[in-house]
Amino acid sequence: MAFDLEQAYLDLVQTAIGGGLCNPPDLPFSKQELLRARALTRRVRSIFAPEVRALKKNQLALSEPALTTLRGLLLDFQAEDVARLLRINSPVGHTLLGQEALTSLRNCARQAIWLRVPGDFMECGTWRGGACILLRAIQNALGVGSRRRTWVADSFQGLPQPDQLVDAVLHAYLKETGSFSVSLEEVRQNFARYGLLDEGVCFLPGWFADTLPSWQGQLALLRLDGDWYESTYTALEHLYDKVSWGGFIIIDDYNPVIGAYAAVNDFRAARSITDPLVQVDHQIHFWRKLPPHI
Ligand SMILES: C[S@@+](CC[C@H](N)C(=O)[O-])C[C@H]1O[C@@H](n2cnc3c(N)ncnc32)[C@H](O)[C@@H]1O
Q1: Which pLDDT tens digit goes with each residue over 112-126?
Q2: Is the domain of 193 the same as that of 135?
Q3: What is the pTM of this model?
Q4: Which of 125, 72, 76 is nearest to 96 (CA)?
């Protein structure tokens, strides 16, 4: 069988952005990490003391998935759970996506190109930029880099303060890690390290509510990874109509644990979208935007 250079190149980029070339051993938590985790748990519980009381008395009027999440975050979280969360911002890779999720992203991107779905690729919520780096590598490897762009949309100052209770509690923990804040310069440098900082990579720095409403263009693939309800709904509201028929909408956080899940459900209901959701892993789902007659 002939050696498939394109596949080998993309395998290598995928492994590298996932941190697979230099994964440190999964060390047990140190005493200091656990102490820090316990202190943070106490702090978060005191910030949300009224909600903790209401939760214990079953007095919070929220959906069952939201209540389950809140019970986990405010009542049941152990020091190890919080310590794990505190490590979330410090892996060596350039993306938080696992290899299964990256393989699925790659398949969606290749299909969009092979099926000639018109438009660029965009990720809203990019952290260190890894998923967009892979998308740009795919465009270039498949010979469409001069016709399709990769858009990198992020505040480049981390997650905003959310307005939903579940998101706000999780944010109280994540703030301790910097809320996924990575500067635009660092993300540009990450692209450059892979030799992929070319004119086809476009950055949209700022809050989605400020940058997305005026964005002009067409998308073949839209990946949403902004975690919160408002971030996800805003992106769908302003970009969904710019996704071509046959295009892919990938939701990173389609899991009741955070607001993105409710935002997607609300948006799909508001727009009567029934295109089937495909499950990738315990949280990532995508759908293809099918024309009405199919
Ligand atoms: C979980 S991280 C994204 C992870 C990334 N997709 C990856 O491949 O690892 C969430 C990102 O969303 C961004 N974000 C969330 N809400 C936003 C908003 N409303 N406007 C701009 N950026 C936002 C944060 O700055 C952060 O970089």
Answers
A1: 999 999 999 999 999
A2: yes
A3: 0.95
A4: 125
Measured by CA distance, the residue closest to atom 7 of ligand 1 is: 95
Contact in structure between 187 and 126 (CB atoms under 8 Å): yes
Q: What is the CATH number of the domain that holds 133?
A: 3.40.50.150
Residue 24 lies in a domain: no
Residue among 288, 289, 286, 290 nearest 105 (CA) = 286
Q: Which residues span the domain enclosing 60? A: 31-86
- If asked whether residues 255 and 148 sit together in one domain, one would say yes
User: Is the beta carbon of 262 within 6 A of some atom in ligand 1?
Assistant: no
Structure tokens at 99: 């290899």
CA–CA dist 87, 85 (Å, integer): 5
| pLDDT tens per residue, range 236-274 | 999 999 999 999 999 999 988 889 999 999 999 999 999
Q: Which atom of ligand 1 is nearest to the CA of 182?
A: 27
Contact 130, 186 (CB under 8 A): no
The CB of 231 under 6 Å from ligand 1? The reply is yes
Residue having the nearest C-alpha atom to atom 11 of ligand 1: 125
Two tokens, residue 269:
């209901």
CA distances from 133 to 51, 97, 137 (A): 41, 12, 6
Rounded to whole angstroms, the Cα distance separating 218 from 239 reads 9
264: alpha, beta or left, given left = phi > 0 and alpha = psi -120 to 50? alpha
Whole-angstrom distance, CA of residue 67 vs CA of residue 62: 6
Q: What is the token pair recorded at 222?
A: 């839209």
